[in-house]
Structure formats: structure tokens, C-alpha cells
Input
Amino acid sequence: MPQVLVYLFGYFLLTIPAFLGLALIAQIGRSTRVRRAGELVLVTGVVALTPVVAHRALEVPALWLAVALLVVVLAVSVARQLRSRS
Output
């Protein structure tokens, strides 16, 4: 596994508690900025995980379903971000 993919996976793992923390703060404080920051953290985490799973899917073809689901989640998240900003 190339070193870049290890770093991307590590970043993805760090985005999980960051997103949960930001979501909790946004829920308690009802802050729109914190909610959007949490959503951006989630989107960047999905972006970081997609090449890692795609690389692994080259060895295990059954994982292409997971890659497709990640791409769908990414597309829906980006669409929601763009819609909420306009």
C-alpha cells in the first residue's frame, strides 16, 4: 500500500471524532457555522477514504460496491453543501 494511502486512511480516521464533536457542538449551540464545518469535515473524510477503498478494490472486486456507495455519498453531500449555500 503506497504511503499516501496510509496518510489518507489516517486522516479519515481523524475525521470521525472531529465530525462527531462538531455535530455535538452544533446540536447543543445551534450554530450554523459549526454544522457546516462538521459537514465539510465529513465530506473531506469521504474524499480521503475513496482512493483507499478503490485501491483495495483492485484486489477484492466485491469492494467496488463500497466505492460506488462512497461516490454516491460524496455526490449527495456536495450537492447538499452547494444547495445550502445558495
